[in-house]
Amino acid sequence: MEHEDIELIRSLMPQNEELKQLMTEHDEFEKQIEDLNSRAYLSPEDAIERKRLQKLKLSGRDRIEQIIAEYRKNR
Questions:
Q1: pLDDT tens digits for 12-58?
Q2: CA 30, CA 33: separation in Å to the nearest integer?
Q3: Which of 12, 31, 35, 42 has the most crowded Cβ, counting Cβ within 10 A?
């Protein structure tokens, strides 16, 4: 995300509970993915989990982008 988007998200989070939850989840997914990526070897289960987390993170990011777009449209 661009710096401008991050600043907008931070300003909207206190007013938008969904956005706040999505950002919290996004950060948690990122930490879990980084943990898996730091391993020298991933079991097949770990590889599946990493892919699942990546999809969840992307889905959340898409929703965050929708919220930002709606805000800008109504602004």
A1: 999 999 999 999 999 999 999 999 999 999 999 999 999 999 999 99
A2: 5
A3: 12
